[in-house]
Every structure is written in C-alpha cells, then in structure tokens.
C-alpha cells in the first residue's frame, strides 16, 4: 500500500492516479478541504504522525504536505521549521521503522538562482535564500539519511482549478486587467497532470536519489505569460514587461529556478508548455483539473 500525505492538488492527484496499487491519502485534520476517503491526523503532534505510519504500515510513504507560502514562512519561522522540516523528519523516521520507502516533495527554491543560464541539475549545490527554501533543504537532508528514498524537486506547477501562476493570469486577463510580469525571472513550468504522472513513474519503478520533475523549457515569467495569453485567446498587449527589481519583493527569492529534467527525460517524456496549456484549456472547458 502507498500512503500519500497532503490533500492539495498534488497529493489528491497522486492518490487518484495510484488508487490501483492501492493508495491511501492522509492530511492534517485542520485542512478545510479534506477529500472523501482521506484519513486525518494532527500534524502538530509527533505521536500522531508516527501513529498513522505505524498503523497503516505502507510500503511507500509519499510526503507532499507542506507550508509553501514563502512570505508566511519568512514571518513565521518556527511554524515553517516544524511543518516543513521536523514533521517530515518524524515521517521519515516512522517510515524507516516500518521498512517503508520514502518519497519527498521538494522545490526548485532550494537553489540560489545565480547559476548562469539556470537549468539546475540534481548534482548542483543547494543554497537557500529564504526560510521556506532553508526548511526544504533541511527536509531533504533528513530524508537523505534514510536507506531508501526519493526526493522530487518540482518545477512551477500549473493547471486549472487550483491557485497557480497560470490560473491567476487567466483570471486576471478574463477580467480585462493588465498584468505586470518579470522578464528576468525564470522557471520551468510543468502541467500538474504531467508532474503526477512523473512522480508515479518514479515511485512505482523504485527510482531513488534526487530527480527534477519540471517542464523542458526555461521561460521567463513574461514569456510564460505570453504563451498563456495566446493559448487562452487573450491579447498579449495586456501583459506589461517589468524587471524583478520593479516587484519590490519583501522576501529574497531566486531569480532563476529553472530545472534540468534530463535525468527524468531518460525515463519518460514530459510535455512542453504549449501542449500543457492546451491540456489545461481543455480541462477547464470540461470542468476538470
């Protein structure tokens, strides 16, 4: 049995994609949107985290639950450290006790964004710039100490019906708003369904170590915005090119979080942004994610 923590788009999607294994979902009892059939636990209690693993005894434990709001993490360091690091370590230790293989969701934010040309590989050194990134690096370290682990660093997820860069932009453009987008901030967007398929592939095939699960392209926020506008039939004139400095960010974030997914591509093909956005548009029209 596979146990997946977290009931966000990624966690819920993984449970659905792997339900034939079978897979079970579990998330924090305080979550306001717990999917039907998901178990709950108290994320704030170490004994409850260990209990659910001890009782279920999964063969594979997939950790997707986290606090990913960068601003919140910066202002609430203790919360971020607990949820994103200590709690993940409790899960990792519990997994070892029952002989479960461990899969951890991580982030491209673990890098400092200063690599010329970006496209970070799994071998590049991490250098976190903010509290959120620091907690993710520490979680990676905790998992790395286990015997059987997989760390998945994700590119920017996008899709219909959940909060993300693309869905927010579509909403703003549909309301006739102009949107400012940085021309000098880069990432590697990946469609949610493709990220789920990749994690499923890596998990079920027993892959270990670090893998980057991201789209094949390095795009600036502005370039991605133009592709979104074209895909959904909006005028690109509504997009206003600016620089990262113009954003006056309150938290230090990497300028370039693009990831090389060459290691993943040796196992499976991930769709590019144009194909992913077409799938997103079709899903939105059909009322699916």
From TrEMBL:
UniProt entry tagged with the keyword Oxidoreductase: yes
GO MF entries: dTDP-4-dehydrorhamnose reductase activity
Record carries keyword Cytoplasm: no
SUPFAM superfamilies named in the record: NAD(P)-binding Rossmann-fold domains
Domain RmlD-like substrate binding, residue spans: 2-271
Residues in the signal sequence: none
Keyword terms of this UniProt record: Oxidoreductase
Domain of life: Archaea
Pfam families from the UniProt entry: RmlD_sub_bind (PF04321)
Entry EC no(s): 1.1.1.133
PANTHER family: NAD(P)-BINDING ROSSMANN-FOLD SUPERFAMILY PROTEIN (PTHR43242:SF1)
Annotated protein name in UniProt: dTDP-4-dehydrorhamnose reductase
Organism: Methanocella arvoryzae (strain DSM 22066 / NBRC 105507 / MRE50)
